Fold:
Amino acid sequence: MSSENNSLNQVIKHRLEKLNKIKDAGINPFPYSYTSTHKIVNILAEQENLLNSHVSISGRIVSFRKMGKASFIHIQEESSKLQVYAKSDILPDTIYDNIVRNLDLGDIVGISGDLFITKMGELTVKTTGLELLSKNIRPLPNLKEKDGEAFNAFEDKELRYRHRHLDLIANPEVMDVFKLRAKIISTIRSELDAQDYIEVETPILQNIYGGASARPFTTFHNTLEQKLYLRIADELYLKRLIIGGFTKVYEIAKNFRNEGMDRNHNPEFTALEFYQAYADVYVMMDLTEAIIHNVAKEISKKEVEFSGHKIDISQTFIRKSMFSLLNEATDEAVDKMDSQALFALAKTKNISVEKNMNYGQLLDCIFGALIEPKLVQPTFVTDYPKAISPLAKVSRDGNPEIVERFELFIGGMEFANSFTELNDPIEQRNRLEAQSRLRDLGDDEAQVIDEEFLMAMETGMPPTGGVGIGVDRLVMLLTEQDSIKDVLLFPAMRPE
Structure:
């Protein structure tokens, strides 16, 4: 056993001994409840009005200075801290000896007393009542603070993600990111609700996965004796609701894709999808921009620092076609090129492509290499190849190989994807059968044929616009975090 483990075991043993002393004194170290009169954050905000008032607060001990028969303690509630002064002759009989002397960093306590300012100028509770609410047995990270600055901090990203509870205690400002995340999602809901969208729920476990190009996770239902898939998107179910007569629906859903992990991807992620009957991609573009503008306004964000760039999210978003961007970047007529010419272009630009890529995949690969990293300010990219957009309607300008689709890019990252939805069931079947042939050729992310969805489409689907937005990525942008792990409370991690 390492010396580090020996040391930890000694600390735990010592704390268990303290726990037994408290129990032996007839005190329950894990009581059922505690009533506070104030939150610490409110006391700090209103301290001038509350001086000399009697308050009851609760929180976790994060610093502790013992001086014989008196102690100075800092307790933390969420991301706010307040000093507590405990003295043996102020507290009820035996409380100091039985509880205070057996306290440790990490213990959770309830404190009652009067607010005053110390000679050092710090707002403090002079404790007249102290309850132990939960005894810490496994110690916190070895945090230290001097002159208001932390050192020996709990900063290792790997440990923080694996032990989020410790991260939130040691780095309480992290909590602010997740409070802001909650506000962002709540604002999105309010925006859509105000436009008469109905929030719905669709199945996570599905017989056939669809609605995106991705590999699924699989599971097995014992009673049905059936293989099931975790959804990769909720698109096909939401479209069935449009077919059934809903005119506006949305879902904020957990999706699951069996793919790699990096700063932009987690196998479990949150997506917003919304669909509107009798609308098209251009209506959805306006709505997407309005939602992002209004969410940013609600949280008082006009400009953000993201991926090393200053980004103005209050401006009118840029709108450009995929081909105009490619033509400008290469100074060539990419829109006139066939697959053979695209292979040659990729070679010239040192872009790695696979031999079996079709026209749409080649175009997408070249676009990803040459254009996406340069799309820093919010930009809607329109007019995508049909070959990689099997659920979108062909462009109304007459080009049979281009569909009505946009993707929104900010800071070189994709944030949203939208179609004028294909509502011709015959054409939809043809497109999905083409995807099936790609699967036969080894593309395990090609879409599958969902016969139930096709049957629903044959009932008659109105013209429809739909959008999918990556909620985690939007939170990354608006909270200025460069990794998706920093906006997920419990990101996926490799086993230790």
Observations:
- The chain has two domains: 3-140, 175-317+378-487.
- The first strand starts at residue 54 and ends at 67.
